[in-house]
Amino acid sequence: MSISAQNPDISGERQSGQDVRTQNVMACQAVSNIVKTSLGPVGLDKMLVDDIGDVTITNDGATILRMLEVEHPAAKVLVELAELQDREVGDGTTSVVIVAAELLKRANDLVRNKIHPTSIISGYRLAMREACKYIEEKLVTKVEKLGKAPLINCAKTSMSSKLISGDSDFFANLVVDAVLSVKMTNQRGEIKYPIKGINILKAHGQSAKDSYLLNGYALNTGRAAQGMPLRVSPAKIACLDFNLQKTKMQLGVQVVVNDPRELEKIRQREADMTKERIEKLLKAGANRQELLLLGGPKEDMRHVAKATGATLVTTFADMEGEETFDPAHLGSADEVVEERIADDDVVLIKGTKTSSAVSLILRGANDYMLDEMERALHDSLCGCGGGAVESALSVYLEHLATTLGSREQLAIAEFADALLIIPKVLAVNAAKDATELVAKLRAYHHTAQTKADKKHYSSMGLDLVNGTIRNNLEAGVIEPAMSKVKIIQFATEAAITILRIDDMIKLVKEDGQGDE
Fold it and tell me: Which residues span the membrane (predicted)?
């Protein structure tokens, strides 16, 4: 039953039941349709012009949705979902929005057919768990077994839909070298690749192929003064998150001076306070040649502090009200040197103490190209996408649904169908026959799961250039398991969140201040 009425107890409009669900699903479909055409290696780009006329040309789902001013509350959930995927994994932002919108659409159809939302939610949750389990048990190949070549292919897959796809061989090697450079083993013996240890700097001029990898963390800033040395080796590094310039009295502080000669003493004291602070730093460091003071954006400071073992200091004040600096707060590096890249001076920190850091220097013709190159490299540093996993999961979940005798069976079957939206959209964007290709793909995966001697068919995916089916593992179109697992988990949770809503109350602002 659907109600849309002015409620006398609420100063606003209330909508409940099927009306709200349909409205929410339509809003999410609208958001999904915006990014749908930009999925895959042959996806199209979007041109976004903001309120002050700045132009952004991209096909990165998270960037598109971030720049759209979405007002509908349910659609905002999808925008936040894309941002979460971008933060957690880096790639798959478009896929996660498309899958979530498709799950919602199918759930809404089930509700119309008198299936209770709670049954659909429990079915979706079960399907999500089973899908993630199947990926980890049956579809995963360890990176250690594959070597370097598949990593390069993985990066190429991610870049295939981006502006730099023509130079994907060059950039994929650059990315893989950068990631392997920051490889480290933590205290538990786990191998980690701290992606934040890779800094990306953009510099105008030359061609995209003149981009290169620098060993060291590059800061987009020069020396504070020309008298400072160009090179310090070895270097002790203090990361200070406050101004070290001449101390000035705070606004609002008044000093009443009777004798004009006292003014000079006040100015002298202000200068002395800065001098004393620098003396404290020099005492903590080894000598004047080995101590470097770094200033820069807070994000850069955090990364430098992590790489060099320094502690970010926000004040010199201690518990007693005195000013002190603990030598333990200093970080160290083998060398700090200022170099000139394009028209800018950059400070390079090499041989950092705790974890290795590298910088990717991107060259390009203009801002739009450099920005899109940076987004493409961010995606490929973090993952990639494809079409085989969704088909395998769809076949597996369809079979699973038939083994259940409960109401969840219908929800799991719809979940299985919803996952096919990814290969369908990939094929449509490549101007191929989606119906025929997806049918062939499902046939291959059904054979892989039912016949023991055909298990290698589980790697079959779409070849979007020729419009055929091929073994994507051999072709090098590989997908990180983490990306796929997160897409399924995040999309399901977002769909469930919106599906739970069956009542929406829009409060009306009161025109004037009435009597209390």
Answer: none
Identify the pLDDT of residue 45: 86
Measure the CA–CA gap between 507 and 510, rounded to whole angstroms. Answer: 9
Range from 94-103, 155-164, 369-378 that averages highest in pLDDT: 94-103
pLDDT band at 382 (very low <50, low <70, confident <90, very high): very low
Enter the DSSP assignment of 232: E
Q: Is residue 22 annotated as a catalytic residue, yes or no?
A: no
Is 379 annotated in the active site? yes
CA 451, CA 211: separation in Å to the nearest integer?
A: 48
CB 377 within 8 A of CB 395: no
Evaluate whether 423 touches 462 at the Cβ level (below 8 Å): yes
**pLDDT, greater one: 135 or 182:** 135
Distance CA 213, CA 179 (A): 11
Q: Would you state the pLDDT for residue 20?
A: 84
Residue type, 285: G
93 is catalytic: yes
Q: Is-catalytic flag, 141?
A: no
Instruction: Indicate which residue of 93, 308, 352, 492 is catalytic.
Output: 93
pTM above 0.90, yes or no: no
Which comes out higher in pLDDT, residue 451 or 289?
A: 451
Distance between CA atoms of 232 and 223, rounded to whole angstroms?
12
Res 190: pLDDT: 65
**CB neighbourhood size of 497 (10 A):** 15
Instruction: Indicate the helix (H) or strand (E) that contains 304.
Output: helix 298-308
Tokens of 188: 């538990």
Is the confidence at residue 8, as pLDDT, over 70? no
In the 8-state DSSP scheme, what is residue 138?
I
- Residue 162: which residues within 8 A CB-CB, separation 6 or more? 59, 60, 372, 373, 375, 376, 379
Contacts of 207 (CB under 8 A, 6+ apart): 363, 364, 365
Q: What percent of the chain has pLDDT over 70?
A: 80
Spatial separation of the C-alpha atoms in residues 96 and 492, rounded to whole Å:
9
Q: Are 182 and 360 in contact (CB under 8 A)?
A: no
Helices (H), 383-480: 388-402, 408-419, 421-429, 434-450, 472-475
- Please tell me which residue in 58, 60, 63, 463 is annotated as part of the active site: 60
